[in-house]
Each structure stands twice: as structure tokens, then as C-alpha cells.
Design brief:
- It is built from three helices and no strands.
- With 88 residues, the protein is an all-alpha fold.
- The longest helix is centred in the middle third of the chain and has 41 residues.
- The protein is rod-shaped, with a radius of gyration of 20 Å.
- The mean pLDDT is 84.
């Protein structure tokens, strides 16, 4: 299917291929950032257990959990978008 499309509209095929690679790169970068935030969440939770009176870490942990969750939602949307574009 791709070869037929490439022969009928090579410019469009090249653009779609480049876009697919770009989205894949974004997915990798955002997934790595989410993994880093997972580690930060674990460290914040350990700190909160060690210092239960330090209330600042609770709000910090909540903020990085929200950030991580937002990144994971973005990754899921990009994966869906990337897979739907590769099917066309």
C-alpha cells in the first residue's frame, strides 16, 4: 500500500513519513521525561516518609504526579495519532 501511495504522490508520502518519525521522536522524549518524573515521585515519597512534618514535599509530589500524568496522556494521544496516520 505504501509503495502505491508513494508512486502516486511521493511528496505527500515523504511528508507523512517525516511526520511519523517526528511524532515517534516526541513520544520517546516525553516517555523518558515521564520516567524521570516517576523517579522524582518515588524520591519525594521517600522523603515524605522520612520527614512527615515537612509539608512542602506533599505539594511538590502532587505537582510532579500531575506533570507526569499529563505527559503520559500526551504520549498516549501522540501514539494514537501516529498510529491512525500510518494506517491511512
Amino acid at each position: 500500500m505504501e509503495t502505491q501511495e508513494a508512486s502516486t504522490n511521493p511528496q505527500r508520502f515523504a511528508i507523512e513519513r517525516k511526520r511519523h518519525r517526528y511524532l515517534g521522536s516526541m513520544i520517546e522524549e516525553l516517555s523518558a521525561a515521564a520516567a524521570d518524573l516517576d523517579q522524582a515521585v518515588a524520591a519525594a515519597q521517600q522523603h515524605a516518609l522520612a520527614n512527615p512534618r515537612d509539608y512542602t514535599y506533599a505539594s511538590y509530589a502532587a505537582a510532579i504526579v500531575r506533570r507526569r500524568d499529563n505527559l503520559l496522556r500526551t504520549v498516549a494521544n501522540l501514539k494514537r495519532r501516529n498510529s491512525s496516520n500510518s494506517d491511512t
